Every structure is written in C-alpha cells, then in structure tokens.
Amino acid sequence: MTNVTMIAAVGRNGVIGDGSSMPWHISEDLKFFKRTTMGHPMIMGRRTFEAMGVLRGRRSIVMTRREDWRHADVETAHSLAEALSLAGPADEVFIVGGGEVYREAMPYAARLVITEVDQSPDGSVTFPEIDQTQWQETERESRDGFAWVTYVRR
Question: How does the average pLDDT of the chain come out, rounded?
Fold first, then answer.
C-alpha cells in the first residue's frame, strides 16, 4: 500500500477555505507545499483543482462525480479507491483537498502535514478534526503567524 499523506493549511477554527479559494496567502507556506509535494502524485477534488490549476512537477489526479469532466493535464477518478489505484505504486501520495476529499481519505492516511494558521477566517470548508487518540504530533516548526506540524498515525 502506498503511503498516503494529507497536506493542508488549517485555521484555528478548522476552516481551509470558502469553496473557491483559500482564506490567506502565505508565500512561505506555498513554497513549503511545493517542496513537500514535488515529484509525488497529488489527489484532489475538482473544485480544489479549479482553484489551484495545474501544478508542474507533480501528477494531478482529480476526483469528481461528473462522469464527463476532463482536463488535458490531469487524470480523472470518480472515487478515492480509483484515485489511489491511478496513483499506483508511489513512495508517497498527497491528498491536497478539499474538505470532502480530506474526510474520505482520513482513514487511509498514515501522515498529516498541517500548516496551523493563526487565524480564524470565515469559510464553509473545513479540515476533519484531528483525533489525538489516533494521531501523534512528531514535528512542529513555528513561524510568524503559523506553524508546520506533522502527525503520524498511532
């Protein structure tokens, strides 16, 4: 089984966005996301893909319920199982959003790479609760206004 890692920037209130965009722009974190995911397959929902676009140097697998949805530069899956199968034997596959995809993928994740943003923005899209009985914090790197935090499944 491929190692599944979920990566997200999450506000204090659990918000990750409003359905079309992220509520913050943290240049240092975007560079961290690029460094961390480079060379790895990424699985995301269609709305997340439409907000981010094609990210060079990484395979994008887009999950959608729309049977007729296609994009020239990405692979399309209609379920998480299909997306993980498309990702194939990779040393690590990143789940990059949005909220529904995170909730569905949480039971399969071995690692969480979370940017804890020191804000509580308005937004309807949230990251699933991180249950401390199932996850152990293994790394924390604090920055001005946010922290990069890694959790591994207990």
Answer: 95
pLDDT tens for each residue of 60-107: 999 999 999 999 999 999 999 999 999 988 899 999 999 999 999 999
CA gap 23, 12 in Å, rounded: 12
Structure tokens at 21: 């965009």
Placement of tokens 């929902």 in the chain? 45
Supply the pTM of this predicted model.
0.95
Q: Round to whole Å and give the CA distance between 34 and 30.
A: 6
A 10 A CB-CB count for 108 gives 17
Q: In the chain, what percentage of residues exceed pLDDT 90?
A: 92
| Distance (Å) of CA 131 to CA 29, 65, 107, 143 | 24, 28, 11, 24
- The arrangement of strands across the sheet holding 111-117 comes to 75-77, 60-63, 42-45, 92-95, 3-11, 111-117, 146-153, 135-143
DSSP β-ladder status, 135-143 and 146-153: antiparallel
DSSP characters over 4-45: EEEEEEEETTSEEESSSS-S---HHHHHHHHHHHTTS-EEEE
113-127: average pLDDT: 97
| Coil, strand or helix at 37 | helix
DSSP state of 89: S
